[in-house]
Amino acid sequence: MEAIGMPDTRQQSEEYIRQCLGGSYQEDLISAYLDSSPEMVRWMEGNSEVKFFGLPFPDYHMDRKGAAYGRTVMTRPYDGRRLKRLVRQIRYPLQGMSAFGSMQTPLGEIGTWQKPWASWRNMKFVSSSLLRYGADLIFYGKGTDLCNGNALVGRLLESVTKTRITLWSNTPAIEPILDQGRVAGLVVRQEGRDLRIQAKKGVVLATGGFARSASLSRKYLPFSDYTAAPRGNTGDGIGLGIASGGHLPAPNKDNGLWAPISELHGPKGQVRHFPHQALDRSKPRCILVDGDGLRFANESAPYQPFGHDTHAAGVQKHFIIGDSVFLRRYGMGLALPFPYPVSRYLMRHYLVSAPTIRELARKLRINEENLAATVEKFNGYAREGRDPDFHRGEAIYDQAYGDASNKPNPCLGPLEKPPFYALPLYPGNVSTMYGLETNINAQVLDGSGKAVPGLYAVGADMNNPMKGFYPGGGCTLGPGMVFGYRAGLHIAGKL
């Protein structure tokens, strides 16, 4: 934050989190998080290939005391060619957040791609990126210019290759090895063989939570069928923790990180889920309506509050609707902006198109009169630059994810250029935020509050210290890295 001219203090950060969490604020966990966050960043930059930078984005609730710009920490882009063939093992980014399958770009360059002919610099960047991607496909089979989360994984992977650490993929943990109440290792299955792996210091659970577990997700999450979490996140870590003596605390106010989810059905029956967190629904020239053709929330709100509004309204299916300018300028979910083609999304009925709003309503089987009246009313608001119904575009967060070049309101624009497009959405989640109860050093606790010897849980396997609230970007990954750092220090006898 200092590097981008946005100073902060621990007291101000603590006050903001306290304001957001209210009665769910747990003093010891948040204090440990705030104390160790800057330490973790310095340690990672000094002892690994991971490099960070500050992003001048606002906190999600800028009306709360202590809120600030610049607390979002991003990973610097990474040249995956440094990993050679190992780069192929890094998970592809979500389609819709990359082009042509695996071509990525930094968040700050999205505007460059939207206006490639606006300047010599833009044209040079876009053309060189395309040329590099073509070469990458020939030599590596995928793009190697890694950004955002892929950049973090790539940098961590290079760091591991420089140590004596051995990575075993496709090796599930089956059960814990217990020695007089202490977790002394794990039984794992590798290539059909069960192996007993001894752990002298401890076992760290970091398996990504349970969003893909049919039993756990249906017990703890609303609308659990719709998730953008990886398929392997089936609650293995939580099961191992409970089998070792750990326990789940009382559920949080929210046990998941909410987002509208769209579905693309493939030709062989496969289904791909995409989370609509901010990049499309915050932009002008679109609205979200329920099954009756009525707006029900501020389309540009942060994803967690938007999820609350969706649940409160009882909406089980909704639609993002935009005109042709919206689609080609900003994209809709998996359908990327111009010049990326969208015909296959129309053929697979991911997108629905019609020459008029009324015909679009008929295709969607929603009330024709309602949708026409909703669009007409919204268009009037958009031309005035104010939304008295849901106050879209008034909050600083809304404006940050809108289009600053759109006047008078970066989030409001009329739907007036045919054809019109719609995309069905479902309330869902991106990740779970509920897990094993842990202490300030990420040690798993039993039902009496005592640490289970030798067992730690981090990331989505630990109960998130934000307790389901979401003060700002990174409130899942940030605690995951910070408490992973604290677990490492504790295992090494330095805490």
TrEMBL record:
Keywords: FAD, Flavoprotein, Oxidoreductase. GO terms for molecular function: oxidoreductase activity. The keyword Iron-sulfur does not apply. Residues 7-477 form the FAD-dependent oxidoreductase 2 FAD-binding domain. The keyword Membrane does not apply. One of its GO terms (biological process) is steroid metabolic process. Pfam families: FAD_binding_2. Its cofactor is FAD. PANTHER family: 3-OXOSTEROID 1-DEHYDROGENASE, FUMARATE REDUCTASE. This is FAD-dependent oxidoreductase 2 FAD-binding domain-containing protein. It comes from Cladophialophora psammophila CBS 110553.
